[in-house]
Amino acid sequence: MTTVLIYLVVMALVAAVVFLLASVVFGRGEELPALPPGASPTRLPAADVTGDDVRSLRFQLVLRGYRMTEVDWVLQRLGGEIDQLRAKVAELEKADDPSR
Fold first, then answer.
1. Phi, psi of 72 (to 5 degrees)
2. pLDDT tens-digit profile of 11-27?
3. Rg, C-alpha atoms of the chain
4. 45 DSSP assignment
5. Rounded to an integer, what distance in angstroms lies between the CA atom of residue 90 and that of residue 92?
6. Superkingdom of the source (predicted)?
7. pLDDT digit string (tens) for 36-69?
């Protein structure tokens, strides 16, 4: 009986060592390295946001998804940028067609 118990304990220790070694070598399967606590990968230029800027956005992961304040901030910024672009388009269309 004690031989089986010793065998199981040694097997568990070997499995733990293999798991830890694999975790160190292969990481957690993330595409990007983990951010330090409190850091935010969410960055947008001060003005003239482009499609590439939006495509390169990254949000900090939390327990149940993304940090809501970061997502809200980005949506607010993009909404303001769209409003500015629409106003500029309307202004240019008005200047181009004096009958309006």
1. -60, -40
2. 999 999 999 888 877 76
3. 26
4. -
5. 5
6. Bacteria
7. 666 666 777 777 777 888 888 777 777 777 778 8
